[in-house]
Amino acid sequence: MRFFPYTPRKYQEKVIELIQREIEGNKNICIHATSGFGKTISILSALLPYVESSGIRIIWAVKTGNQTDRPIEELKIINKKCASGFFGFSFRGKKDMCLLGKKYGKNLTYDDIHYICKHMQGECKYAKNINKFKEIEEKILKQPLCYSEILKICKKYNICPYKIQYIISEFADIISANYNYILNDFEMLPITDDRPKILVVDEAHNLQNINIKSFIISYKTLKKAFGELEDFFENKNKKIFNFLKEFEEYINSISNKFEEEIEINKQEILTLCNNEILEELKEYGMAVRAERLRSGKPPRSSIYRLYLFFSAILASINQDGIVLIAFKDKGKENKQQIYFEIFDMRAEEVLKEKWKNYNARIFCSGTLTPIDAFADICGLENYSSCQIPSIYTSKNILPLITNGLTTKGAELEEKMKKAYVENILKFVKNLQTNIAIFCASYRIQNNLIEEGLVERINELNREVFVEESKISGIEGREILIKFKKKSKDKNKAVLIAPLGGRFGEGVDFPNGELGGIYIVGIPFDKICARTNAYLNYYKSLYGPSLGRYYGYILPALKKASQAIGRGLRSENDRCIVILGDQRFAEPRFFKLLPDYVRYNAKIINYEEIDKNIEEFKL
Question: 496: burial class by Cβ within 10 Å (0-12, 13-18, 19+)?
Fold first, then answer.
């Protein structure tokens, strides 16, 4: 406990003891503990003695870039309160850290930035100034750094922030990064030495949903490729032109065969494109990129993107667990078009190989149970586990399961829509706090909005914030800030968002920022080509019953459980949770809910929701 800077909460010492007992055996350690337990500080303080004595480095993996700063902020507190001198930083990739790339526009992809960095090295003043590191060495290494602090220092001295990360990694005891830099091969962490590594995966339940080989193109990509062939080349390449025409004819031929999505035979689509065409696409695509870069524009090419797409299909042709899906969706222009996505479902196979890069691994989450299922899906053959009982009691949470409401079925009937809207309004009327309404899907969410939910809530003098499907990260942050601020106002706000969206997990609402949560339905994946491919693959791995359980039931209940925990961060928080679907009471689903829900849940008639709320004073 030498590096634990706070008064320990219940069970934190138990977790620290488990880690220190098991970590030297080169094992996997799985820790299930609800939000608010203090997983980050417990794991850090357990591992730092080994960093100090053995020179082990901690690699901390998180789901989103915004979460990378959390362990670094805790490390700063440890250094201050425990008089230690550990160094670490939160890592960001070229997309965030390339100062030169920012001159080519705001919406650059990773591939754009990588191309700029590779081809403009000789003209990049930031890269040339890397030899000035000695001038800022003392400033940059004196304490742990969040990525924004690295960026600020490097901007001041006109030094490349991305390359600086490689230099300071040599001194780092902990590097925190997004999952992508741990699991993908396109951009790796800046580690150049052989120092032993312990991997910590936070919010590890998300590992099941990795899609490493994902690649998407659209009909718009094809139309832009025609335009590039016309705009950049005087003599139109007949081979490429004929390929584009054949691909267009293929798209038109399948467009009437499905309404939403369909699985495409990879062998069939590859008849359009041989190795000779691939080489032509690559050559012409690279020429377009080079010309655009010379013109000071983002170095992207739709011809080159088609090359990458068909190359990826070819590489996966004999690989089980990677399928090609065609689907229809509305883009940013709100016009429906056809998309093609390479969909990778091979979590166990891919992850099992990645774990070999580390001397030991720790996986933690508030929704890691059942741990044996998590271990199967993520390729863990040997592991130690710890399930921490919740700190929340009936004083913290009132979970109500509403009998008489359900989203079961392909479509939500008109009568059920009205019942949900009226029940949600009754909830809002009786709760003078910020409220989140989490819906099983965007389809369900839109059904309720079309039924007048937003206008009806506005009539109660409540501002409503809605997470839409095409919302950007910046827009999401703005909504979050405004919603949290409303918790201090007289008239509280209501957030409407899908389960599994950006607000359904990974976002906390402490200190009374969220007093009510209404879950509309169980978020089972819609049965479609993608879901069928996923279930068929999981059934081939684990058998029919277990495959459906792993691939369909568990993910849905984990999404719901994550959303339930948004309003509870400490033993002082209180929240009323409405589980608005009678199926939550079925034993097969009920047993997968968090323990603090199971121990305190009441099944009520949905029309009596207000009577039960009155008994739980917020």
Answer: buried
Condensed to tens digits (0 to 9), the pLDDT of residues 31-56 reads: 999 877 899 999 999 999 999 998 89
Question: Which string of DSSP letters, residue by residue, matches 352-391?
Answer: HHHGGGSSEEEEEETT--SHHHHHHHTT-SSEEEEEPPPS
What SS3 string covers 196-261?
A: CEEEEECCHHHHHHCCCCCEEEEHHHHHHHHHHHHHHCCCCCHHHHHHHHHHHHHHHHHCCCCCCE
In the numeric block, the tokens 């805790």 are attached to: 74
Q: How far apart are CA 362 and CA 371, in angstroms?
A: 13
Give the Cα separation of 108 and 371 in Å (integer): 39
* C-beta neighbour count of 226 within 10 angstroms: 17
Q: Where are the beta strands (DSSP E) in 375-501?
A: 383-387, 397-403, 435-439, 463-466, 493-498
264 has which bridge partners? Answer: 324
How far, in Å, are 15, 235, 297, 335, 371 from residue 230 at the CA level? Answer: 63, 9, 18, 24, 56
Query: Does residue 146 sit in the same domain as residue 14?
Result: no
Question: Can you give the pTM of this predicted structure?
Answer: 0.91
Judgement on whether residues 567 and 436 belong to the same structural domain of the protein: yes
Q: What is the pLDDT of residues 86-97, one digit of tens each?
A: 999 999 988 889
Structure tokens at 74: 């805790």
- The number of angstroms, rounded, from the C-alpha of 425 to the middle of its chain's C-alpha atoms is 31
> 506 lies in which domain range?
397-614
Specify the pLDDT at position 187.
63
CATH number at residue 35: 3.40.50.300
Read off the tokens for 128.
Answer: 């040339």
Number of helical H runs and strand E runs in the chain:
27, 18
Q: Name 149's Cβ contacts closer than 8 Å, sequence gap at least 6.
A: none
Rounded to whole angstroms, how far apart are CA atoms 43 and 278? Answer: 48
In contact, 114 and 141? CB cutoff 8 Å: no
Question: Which pair of tokens denotes residue 48?
Answer: 């730092």
| Rounded Cα–Cα distance for residues 294 and 271 (Å) | 35
